[in-house]
Design goal:
homodimer; 343 residues; alpha/beta; 434 Repressor (Amino-terminal Domain); Rossmann fold; 3 domains; six-stranded parallel sheet; DNA-binding
DNA sequence: CGTGATACCGCACACGGTTGCATAAATGAA
DNA sequence: TTCATTTATGCAACCGTGTGCGGTATCACG
């Protein structure tokens, strides 16, 4: 009966459909259908039960590679992060939530990072050869728009998240930060502050960003001089650069930081200099990552709806994979100014 | 020549070995060998070049599923995180670095989380059916030890990271935190502090942890009363629980926190209560995550060598995959007390 | 008992690679 | 020219699943 005793523990091969078929004296096709609940050729209830119990007993686990080869679906979805080695709390938060969402849908997420357009081709190759069922492109720059229309991925559904503009023929979740950015600037300027410093990583590539534009618009409306500080985008780098900057240019009245990591680095620099927040310098950041809540002075920030973003994006991708011809889904979420103690 | 114009954009099928073979009037076997640099049957240099240029021109990308089916290797490695939905900065840091390491070795990482042993079976199934080439089990509890010897994964190499004890027959990277914990306690007690509160998530499951043991040992040596605070392990939860605790039990002189997240939550609670750190209450955390550096009072912590941990673990896994019979690799790293301003 | 409908099941191929072995071509030596 | 040897390529089987289509029991019904 049970000849699978402990006589040979090694070479314990993985059990396949054929093994089940052999034990039950069926064909592997029947076993496959019994397990997958196939409907076209009817399988008797009795057989289904026999197969299922045998599968459970033998510890059968489908071979994903074989199934993929046959069905063309891998169960993998790819997340593109437009950054180097997905540094930064924002990308960490996004990837973590995307991951959780993917697992909820019994998919697995693989992540790839691409910062410069020049890396695009290699990243393409990566996902393409992994044969992902779909891609979530979480971009914060115009690279996607220049890439996608080329049709590099004709057969792989893509959902875009975080693009600045609406894209044509692409399912999309977009976070509108215009209101948040406007409110943030108005909020910063309200107490009569005039000298607001805009802190960002790559100034040139941020020209199209609504944060940048809100800053410029509100500052010009108020008749203030524009002031920029460029850093490498990290906490450490921002801390150092701001310290230098203040030594040279004096103390600004407010900081408008492109994201929370830079805001946190800036906060630390101000601590080093014994400047009080917000009395001496006010700070506003963007993203709403958890860390900003736990500083001694919790930071004001424009919070992104991470959960909704990730949930909708994976939902859209699922929908598209299920029905490639379905109607487009495009949703706009809003980022919201959360006023805390730093402003 | 180029009949791949824009005449039919749809139905652009993926190019396979056979397509290349047809164009070049070769067999797909030869093409395969030419691309893989196979050595046993020699391929002429001329043919190799022809094949490679044709592959590049046609945009050939190997189908990973098919290759996996044939070779039995998927290029995927699995990371087990022993936590719910891998929350917490520590797990985030580990998964990010593991990810980077995996990509450096042109592998992809998939992550699965399992907190309670009851989830183990489903997690097993997950990785098993995804056919990972290997698993890195980043556990901080005894679950692995009770699971692995059962031989649930007879064919999949496993590297254990973060286990408390040496395991037999398992490649392992272990972080020794005993010295760090001892130093931390000695450091906390040095200025004559007597009332040190141990803050942890699940007290019962931490009994075997060297942090717990160092705390008990040093406190008993000093003749102090033991004092514990149990939280849910999050920043928010720790903040709330500690606030409640202090209201009831008064202000301790020092906090010995099981990890940095709890230390950060505790720090915030102290800020709420207008208590000064470290004058009123000293704080020591564990892990050395980046966030602790950027508080107004940078936290003292026992820092784990993340980079080395992840680099070695993936290295060991690679080695084991390459040669399943090779000698065991077990390495111990040391966590180090980093004294900052909170103590 | 014959016939057709129906419910089940198996055969065989496909998916896209890898690889052992046979074979063809080229080369060299006798 | 012939044969042995090296070099280069093709044939075919295989990995494990999914699936169209044809085949075989079963049964009802006339």
């Amino acid at each position: 009966m049970n000849n699978d005793s402990s006589n040979l523990k090694l070479a314990k091969k993985r059990v396949t459909l054929k093994d089940i078929a052999r034990v039950l004296d069926l064909s592997h096709a029947t076993v496959s259908r019994a397990l997958n609940g196939s409907s076209d050729p009817m399988i008797s209830q009795k057989t289904i039960e026999r197969v299922q119990s045998a599968a459970a007993e033998l510890g059968y686990r489908p071979n994903r590679a074989a199934r993929s080869l046959s069905t063309g679906q891998t169960g993998l979805i790819g997340l593109w992060l437009w950054t180097e080695v997905f540094q930064g709390s924002y990308h960490a938060a996004v990837s973590r939530m995307m991951h959780a969402e993917a697992m909820r849908r019994s998919r697995q997420l693989i992540v790839d990072c691409v910062a410069r357009p020049s890396l695009l081709s290699s990243s393409e190759r990566s996902f393409d050869s992994w044969s992902v069922d779909g891609i979530i492109s979480h971009e914060s720059g115009p690279a996607f728009e220049t890439m996608y229309p080329n049709g590099n991925y004709p057969n792989v559904p893509i959902v875009s998240t975080g693009a600045y503009h609406w894209l044509e023929h692409v399912d999309q979740v977009r976070v509108n930060m215009i209101d948040g950015a406007e409110h943030a600037m108005i909020h910063l300027l309200a107490p009569g502050r005039r000298r607001i410093l805009y802190v960002t990583d790559d100034l040139r590539s941020r020209q199209g960003d609504c944060r940048f534009q809100s800053y410029v618009r509100q500052m010009e409306t108020a008749g203030n001089r524009l002031e920029f500080l460029e850093t490498n985008g990290t906490r450490r780098g921002t801390r150092e650069r701001l310290t230098d900057y203040i030594a040279k240019a004096g103390v600004p009245e407010g900081l408008f930081c492109h994201n929370d990591d830079m805001a946190i680095g800036a906060y630390r620099a101000l601590c080093d200099l014994k400047l009080r927040v917000p009395e001496d310098v006010a700070i506003v950041g963007f993203d709403g990552i958890e860390d900003t809540e736990y500083l001694e002075v919790p930071l004001t920030t424009v919070s992104q709806p991470f959960e909704q973003l990730c949930s909708l994006a994976t939902q859209f991708l699922d929908d598209r994979i299920e029905d490639p011809t379905r109607s487009l889904q495009q949703v706009e979420l809003k980022a919201e100014l959360i006023v805390r103690d730093s402003s």
